[in-house]
Amino acid sequence: MRTSNIKVEFTIPIRPNEPDLNGNIYTEEAILKSLESYKNAPIIIRQQNDAIPIGVINEAYVSWLEQPCVVCKGNIIFGGTDCTVIKSHTNEDNVLVIDEFNITSVGISI
User: Fold this and answer.
1) Which of 53, 62, 82, 105 has the most CB within a 10 Å radius?
2) For residue 70, what pLDDT is reported?
3) Which domain holds residue 70?
4) What is the pTM of this model?
């Protein structure tokens, strides 16, 4: 099932002015200045030493609620769903019409 790119939103937890899991400290100012660089950045899957682009980030902003984080919104370009058809019929134009189905996975094709 696919009618357009899959819209995604994900969060990157941040701890301004504190060491992250790599021991690096990012200032609040540095985080805010970095936001513009997120726009049009690729969404990638890393496999060993390869980076496979699967989508693009359209916007990013910082949410300071509860756990501060960078919120990224974008699209996965090669996405869709896999499903098991439970009930279907063919209409008068000889087109398969799915009446009932279960989603078995949501993913990407690379």
Assistant:
1) 62
2) 95
3) 6-78
4) 0.69
